[in-house]
Amino acid sequence: ACSSKYVLSQMHPMWQGPLAIPGGDRQSPIDIVVRKSIFDSELKPLVSVYDPNTCQQIWNNGYSFLVEYDDTTDKSTLKGGPLQDNFRLCQFHFHWGESNAWGSEHTLDRRLFPAELHLVHWNSDKYSLFEEAVMEDNGLAVIGVFLKVGKRHEGLQKLVDALPAIRHKGSVVEFTRFDPACLLPSNINDYWTYHGSLTTPPLTESVTWIIMKHHIEVSHDQLAVFRSLLFTSAEEDVQKSMVNNFRVQQPLCGRAVRSSFS
Ligand SMILES: NS(=O)(=O)c1ccc(C(=O)O)c(S(=O)(=O)NCCc2ccccc2)c1
Ligand SMILES: [Zn+2]
Q1: Which residue has the least CA distance to atom 6 on ligand 1?
Q2: 141-116-20 Cα angle (round to 5)
Q3: Mutation pick for ligand 1 pocket among 117, 134, 197, 204 (CB with most ligand atoms within 8 Å)
Q4: How far is the CA of 120 from the centre of ligand 1 (A)?
Q5: Residue 3: other Cβ atoms inside 10 A
Q6: ipTM of this predicted complex?
Q7: How far apart are CA 169 and CA 180, in angstroms?
Q8: Which of 52, 48, 145 lies closest to 96 in space, CA to CA?
Q9: Is 131 a pocket residue for ligand 1 (Cβ < 6 Å)?
């Protein structure tokens, strides 16, 4: 799938029909083979500055639920690490399974996690709109954090409590003063990074992925509320629970995965 100009047969249970992807040799997600990752001492510490007052709403887009931030100014930003430019936070969302046995998009030596958090940022030094950056090389930076089932995550509870109000596809509610930094592991300086793509349409190869080595813990009950969301809108007569909203893993095609730690 790396050589062909177009990568077809992206027949994913959730998307209708094959998706032709331009290029197709730097798709995401991937399995991170830890022993094959390359320590890069030039990788700097990540610097995230998030302003909870830029948090605006939470909504169900029929694929995941997104917490969206005001990205019209440089108030919530990410820089450093593998990034040369300044990136603005636009949203975060999760991927999860129908059981705790699987759900993450990336894996570590094939190890699956029950869920994965993605914080999506776009390059505000080079582009003026998220929609532009999505289509461009070096346009996006996404932080991935693995979730494990264990103790209750106090910071996550405010988000969990908002989910029943957005059960159906298309529902939106106001959601303010949420600090996404509370969802990051205590150590954000240990990560892997590689060049890849969005894992949802348009699957553009515009993402610098930054996958955290350390996970966060959430409780079984908190994750169960994620699974109470629906893929379907209120009007549809068959309601489908929002689970297994992850993409199948993609070929590495010779890409290097660098680590910030040895
Ligand atoms: N797993 S991932 O980080 O690749 C990802 C998943 C979902 C979405 C999304 O918008 O639903 C996004 S998004 O926020 O980047 N939007 C992509 C689709 C889109 C393109 C252009 C304008 C609006 C939305 C990213
Ligand atoms: Zn995602």
Answers
A1: 200
A2: 60
A3: 134
A4: 8
A5: 8
A6: 0.96
A7: 23
A8: 145
A9: yes
Atom of ligand 1 minimally distant from the CA of 105? 1
Q: Which helix (H) or strand (E) holds 91?
A: strand 87-96
Q: Which of 135, 34, 123 is nearest to 79 (CA)?
A: 123
Atom in ligand 1 nearest the alpha carbon of residue 142: 3
pLDDT tens for 136-188 read: 999 999 999 999 999 999 999 999 999 999 999 999 999 999 999 999 999 99
Classified as helix, coil or strand, 6 is: strand
Closest CA to 35 of 187, 260, 257: 257
Cβ atoms of 89 and 200 closer than 8 Å: no
In angstroms, what is the span from residue 105 Cα to ligand 2's centroid? 8
Give the dihedral of Cα atoms 179, 184, 189, 195; nearest 10 deg: -100
DSSP 131-195: HHHTTSTT-EEEEEEEEEESS--TTTHHHHHHGGGG-STT-EEE--S--GGGGS-S--S-EEEEE
Write the burial class of residue 136 (CB in 10 Å: 0-12 exposed, 13-18 middle, 19+ buried). middle
**Which of 65, 120, 145 for a ligand 1 pocket mutation test, highest count of atoms within 8 Å of Cβ?**
120
Lowest-pLDDT choice from 13-27, 68-82, 172-186: 13-27
- Global pTM? 0.94
**CB of 199 closer than 6 angstroms to any ligand 1 atom:** yes
Contact 184, 45 (CB under 8 A): no
Cβ–Cβ < 8 Å for 146, 104: yes
